[in-house]
From TrEMBL:
The keyword tRNA-binding does not apply. It comes from the Bacteria. It comes from Gemmiger gallinarum. This is ATP-binding cassette domain-containing protein. PANTHER family: ABC TRANSPORTER, ATP-BINDING PROTEIN (PTHR43335). Residues 2-231 form the ABC transporter domain. The keyword Lyase does not apply. GO terms for molecular function: ATP binding. Belongs to the ABC transporter superfamily. Keywords: ATP-binding, Nucleotide-binding, Transport. Gene3D superfamilies: P-loop containing nucleotide triphosphate hydrolases.
Length: 323
């Protein structure tokens, strides 16, 4: 449906999008997740043909967004981060204007306006001035205009920013609903939002695509437990001696040692932490020492996000031409 190949964008000498490639299939909800300044809007602006790329390709249903903009753009409805709404218009007037600009007219235009008004739940405010609407309703009007022309892909840039909690829930529900009939791509810097709405997450950091998978797979792949915390009656020297014989321990940290008990953190590079915990139990039994408590520490998707977004850089590759 959408193919992005080696997309790169420089603003002067600043690398905002760094050789991003991915494929998007039809009928899913995709979330661009990244902190402020990660390059989400830049990528979306290029994908929708609103901004040129320094290099790389974007193809929508096989049509290159720069070589065949009309055919490619017909497939896309876009809600930019700052939608150009005409504040003195009513939603109805504004939708008529956008619909006509998209080449719709007559009964087909009327039918589509009715349909998007219904889908986005703005029937009750369709004749009010947009300037008098809440931010949540303005966002709905922005989504309604994106739906005109019946595009197969809807791209929404930070659609929940600046909304109150109730409006956020309503817009998230609307995005989920749209995902049943369209391919939806939306950006957010809120992990939990992307986690709950999306079928697939694209994590973007400092212009790089650092992960692309389903929320469940990201958890499985990236969040295998890699830390054991244990409390024992061995003193720190005995503890080190017992664990010397256990392979695959990358780090041992004694956190507390007071009176009878020692609390320690054990890290491993191995994926199979269950095998490691078994080896630890056997080593303690052989050393005639007691494990009072032993727990596996599992990270959260948030930990992965922080780790991935902190480890990428915006360094400019040697010999790269500036835009
Ligand atoms: N026109 C521009 N000229 C120079 N730098 C720009 C321009 N537009 C964006 N940038 C920079 O490019 C980087 C990526 O910006 P972009 O808006 O794509 O990020 P984002 O992930 O959408 O963040 P946000 O959520 O804050 O909009 C940022 O460091 C930003 O300051």
């Amino acid at each position: 449906m959408i193919s992005v190949e080696h997309l790169t964008k420089y603003y002067g000498s600043f690398l905002a999008v760094d050789d991003i490639s991915f494929e998007i299939d039809k009928g899913h909800v995709y979330g661009f997740l990244g902190p402020n300044g990660a390059g989400k809007s830049t990528t979306m602006n290029i994908m929708t043909g609103c901004l040129s790329a320094t290099s790389g390709h974007v193809r929508i249903d096989g049509h290159d967004i720069f070589d065949e903009p009309d055919k490619a753009k017909r497939q896309i409805g876009y809600l930019p981060e700052h939608p150009p709404l005409y504040m003195s218009d009513s939603p109805l007037e504004y939708l008529r204007f956008v619909g006509e600009a998209k080449g719709l007219h007559g009964t087909e235009l009327d039918r589509q306006i009715d349909e998007v008004i219904h889908k986005t739940g703005i029937a009750g405010v369709k004749n009010r001035r947009i300037s008098n609407l809440s931010k949540g309703y303005r966002q709905r009007v922005g989504i309604a205009q994106a739906l005109l022309g019946n595009p197969r892909v809807i791209i929404l840039d930070e659609p929940t920013v600046g909304l109150d909690p109730l409006q956020i829930i309503e817009i998230r529900d609307l995005i989920k609903e749209l995902g049943q009939t369209h391919t939806v791509i939306f950006s957010s810097h809120i992990l939990s939002e992307v986690q709950t709405i999306c079928d697939e997450i694209l994590m973007i950091s400092k212009g790089k695509l650092v992960a692309f998978d389903t929320p469940a797979n990201l958890e499985k792949k990236l969040l295998a437990p890699n830390e054991i915390r244990l409390t024992t009656d061995a003193n720190p020297d005995q503890l080190r001696h017992i664990l010397e014989k256990v392979p695959a321990i990358s780090r041992l940290t004694v956190e507390e040692s007071s009176g009878r008990w020692t609390v320690a953190r054990i890290n491993t590079d191995r994926r199979d932490i269950y095998e490691l915990s078994r080896a630890i139990y056997l080593a303690f039994a052989a050393g005639d020492k007691v494990i009072l408590e032993m727990a596996l520490k599992k990270g959260t998707l948030e930990d992965v996000f922080i780790e991935l977004t902190e480890s990428s850089t915006n360094e400019k590759p040697a010999g790269q031409k500036e835009a």
